[in-house]
Design goal:
It contains 3 helices and 4 strands; from the N terminus they run βαβαβαβ. By secondary structure, the protein is an alpha/beta fold. The protein is globular and about 40 Å long.
């Protein structure tokens, strides 16, 4: 996180495009360490540009969610906030969300 001062809070945002990216930007501006999760490389590039940790994962896959939580915690410490801003539609995905 370049010139911003971290306040020690950590967040993980699933669905890092649109609403998710806006939340990521707002939290980073407030000093949070933030990881953004998406399936597309273009979306992940936006997370990186905002100053977040970009993680490729799928919120519909439990192992993928666990891995993202572990990576976010390893990078920023215990995760204080998890937000699911992922779309509830599209594709043929199935799973807990």
């Amino acid at each position: 996180m370049s010139d911003r001062q971290r306040d020690g809070s950590s967040a993980l945002v699933f669905g890092a495009r649109n609403l998710g990216l806006a939340v990521i930007e707002a939290l980073i501006d407030r000093g949070w360490g933030v990881a953004g999760v998406a399936r597309s490389d273009a979306t992940l590039e936006g997370v990186t540009a905002a100053g977040g940790l970009a993680l490729h994962a799928d919120v519909t896959d439990q192992a993928s969610v666990r891995g993202a939580l572990e990576q976010a915690a390893a990078a920023h410490g215990p995760v204080d906030l998890v937000l699911n801003a992922a779309s509830a539609y599209g594709g043929t995905r199935s799973g807990p969300f």
